[in-house]
Amino acid sequence: MLSFMRIKIYRGKFVAYAVFVVFIGLALGAVTCAVLLDQWIGNSRNEAAGAFSRVESALQYDADRIEAFMQRVYSNNDLVSDIRSFLGNNAEGYLTNRLQGSQFNRPLVSFPEDIRSFLGNGGRGDITQISLHTEQEGNVVSFDSNGNMSFLFRLPNTDETFRETIHRGFVYHKKLSDPNQISRQLGELRFLVNSERIFKTAQNSRLDEAAAISGSGDVYFISGGDRGTEELVRRVAADERTHGYLGTGFANRAYFVKFTSNEFDYRFVSIVDLTTLIHRQANVLLVVFLIVLTAMISVLLLIVYNLREDANFLRRIIVSIGRAKTADFTPVSPARYRRNEYGMIARELDDMIHQLDRHIRTNYLLKLKQQETEMKALQAQINPHFLYNTLEVIRSSALVNSVDYTSDAIATLGALYRDIVKNDNIIRLDSELALLQKYLKIMELKYPDRFYYQFNVEPALLALPTVKFWMQPLAENFFVHGFNPESEFNLLIVNGWEEETRFMLEIVDNGNRIPEERLAEIRRKLARGDDAPLDNIGLRNVYTRLHFFYGTGFSMMIDNNEEAGVKISVILSKEAIGDV
């Protein structure tokens, strides 16, 4: 398969092509991997943006509900009274004041229960703690995961319960004013939105490492996270970019995206470690590698195939030139045609050798065969008594006719023999028809008022090349075997027409038919190429000469007409005419 490597020019071409294909394959693979990596990073960025949006939506929803609750408080005096009672007492004092201020004809209003039903979804919402503060202390209402309430009273504002960190949640501060005197502050309401419940919406996203970092620097891990990740989150928070790459070690990088909340004091950070991402998508990268490798191998095999074919054509050209030098025209299988320089040259050289062989056969072998057959024709095919009989006819006619008639007959006979002995062996078909016409005119003299002839040949056939003097022997067969001297109407017709792929010539007479057994024998001997008997040597001579001249594109058929006589058909393919 790699035999072309022995040729220097093709060896250099193959190395150049191989280097180019490998370079292009690696470049395409690298570009494809880069595009895929960018797409995966883009997907991670979109996931982070979606998670941040859901967190912001949840925080804004809670803020709107708290604002709605504050409007509810200012529109309900009983609720304000209950808040005052809750703010200024301990548990016992709060319960005592509630009972003392209650009326039997009005429902009992409870600040904690109102918060639980309105804000906390039965205590199971995002808001897990509400505290009411004075300047020094505060009272607390808390909800556990089951929605149960608990209370703490008189805790200092510096108590750990009120410490605001992102680990505990987001704190909404709302000033509580006296509805009757807006400038008078009753205290402050603080609503704690639980971080775990808020960021739980982000945990459903496909995030490798995500965290929220408060303005004070506290880090809350939403997914993943360790000491190294916490340091990386702080680096991202300090970076002025909203997204980009950070080095995380030797030859290792991480992609980050950062979102800053406009309403709440925190920043959302998502980090994707590129090494981890590549390991996770290893199957996809393996498929890309196999596709690129397969494409490279396929292209290299195609290059090898083309170079091998070109090398074979080059060898074929060299062999053809060598054959032409040594005149070796032995037929070989033709070169397959290819639309490139080598293929065209190899095909043209094969065709040139084929044409040389045909020309040699046509011009030399045909001349030798014609010399041989002309000798036979002079001895056997041309009736030895033909000239004597014809001259006798002319002499007899001269006795009873004018001198002009005798002159025309002798002139016709002389013109016929002059054309026969000319050296031109290859003539046009119209010239061959002229020879036949001269012969038939002489036969009209021999059989006056008993023989007639007619030519019906299309003009398209008149310029066809042919060998000389092959129609006369076929016509003479009619006078030897089929002519009836007793009949007053002996007819010979020559027809010729053109079909799509061939030319047809017919010599038809109305004389005697050939017996079927004899006709089958003639056909069989013509097909086998046997030497014909004496009475058929003219027919065999014609068949041999035409076959040598036209090759396989020539065929001859002999048939009896349905009513009377014989029809000889000569078929010439247009391809055979084109090769002559």
Structural write-up:
With 580 residues, the protein is of the alpha+beta class. It folds into 3 domains: 327 residues, no CATH class; 53 residues; 133 residues, Histidine kinase-like ATPase, C-terminal domain (Heat Shock Protein 90, 2-Layer Sandwich). It is 53% helix and 22% strand. The protein has 16 helices and 17 strands. The strands form 4 sheets. A 5-stranded antiparallel β-sheet has the order 3-2-1-5-4. A 5-stranded antiparallel β-sheet has the order 7-6-10-9-8, with helices on both faces. A 5-stranded mixed β-sheet has the order 12-14-15-17-16. A hairpin with a 2-residue loop joins strand 8 and strand 9. Helix 9 packs antiparallel against helix 15, helix 10 runs antiparallel to helix 11 and helix 11 packs antiparallel against helix 12. The longest helix has 67 residues. The radius of gyration is 58 Å and the shape is rod-shaped. It starts with 7 loop residues before the first helix and ends with a helix. The relative contact order is 0.06. About 1% of the residues have low confidence. It is a multi-pass membrane protein. It holds the Pfam family His_kinase.
